[in-house]
């Protein structure tokens, strides 16, 4: 029930409220503002929370400290009632329904910003490529979505060696395949030769009336 809007409205009597930040627990320093998505990375905190109310002028802090002497602040009033029960559940359900057009617009905006960031990084890398620094070192960059190898003589030799090994493996596999085919062909030829020899021997035994199959 205690939201940023309700806290901003309650402390508005002390001065202009610049911002309100709600956290799960106290933080050691000022929390950096992050652009949170309405649809993604939304973590709902449960239980007690800590709120940081920032006023535009220091006088607002002093006025807020003096509020403890005037009594408690009411979040739910006649002019600003807090919804509970079925009304709150209906609003929560309505808020959970995603608008496809709004979601598409946010995704398109995010992808445009991402593409722009990638283009800027690639342009910066292209500008710095081959330029020595103050100590004379040359920074080797990998541009593009598919990073390439550094353009050095050692890298070229490694590429040539890999291609040579790849070609040798391919030739060896082809040799093994050819050898397997030759072995199979020789085995079939031997079976055919043995079959012909058996046919001739059976024919000879029949002629001599010595063939007894049973």
Automatic annotation (TrEMBL):
Record keywords: Coiled coil
Coiled-coil segments: 181-208
- A Gene Ontology BP annotation from the UniProt entry: rRNA processing
Q: Which Pfam families match?
A: RRP7
Its Gene Ontology cellular component terms are: CURI complex; UTP-C complex
Domain Ribosomal RNA-processing protein 7 C-terminal: where? Answer: 96-214
Q: Which family does it belong to?
A: Belongs to the RRP7 family.
**How is this protein named in the record?**
RRP7A protein
Specify the species: Geococcyx californianus (Greater roadrunner)
User: What gene is this protein a product of?
Assistant: Rrp7a
């Amino acid at each position: 029930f205690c939201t940023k809007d309700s806290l901003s409205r309650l402390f508005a009597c002390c001065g202009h409220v610049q911002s309100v930040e709600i956290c799960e627990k106290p933080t050691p320093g000022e929390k950096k503002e992050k652009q949170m998505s309405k649809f993604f990375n939304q973590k709902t905190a449960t239980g007690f929370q800590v709120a940081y109310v920032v006023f535009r002028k220091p006088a607002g802090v002093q006025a807020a400290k003096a509020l403890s002497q005037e009594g408690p602040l009411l979040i739910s009033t006649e002019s600003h009632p807090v919804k509970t029960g079925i009304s709150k559940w209906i609003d929560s359900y309505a808020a959970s329904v995603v608008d496809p057009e709004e979601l598409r617009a946010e995704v398109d905006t995010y992808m445009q910003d991402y593409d722009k960031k990638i283009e800027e990084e690639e342009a910066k890398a292209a500008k710095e490529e081959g330029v020595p620094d103050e100590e004379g070192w040359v920074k080797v960059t990998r541009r593009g979505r598919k990073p390439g190898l550094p353009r050095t003589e050692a890298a070229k030799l490694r590429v040539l060696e890999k291609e040579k090994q790849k070609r040798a493996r391919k030739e060896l596999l082809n040799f093994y395949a050819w050898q397997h085919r030759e072995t199979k062909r020789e085995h079939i030829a031997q079976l055919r030769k043995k079959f012909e020899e058996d046919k001739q021997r059976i024919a000879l035994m029949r002629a001599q009336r010595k063939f007894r199959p049973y």
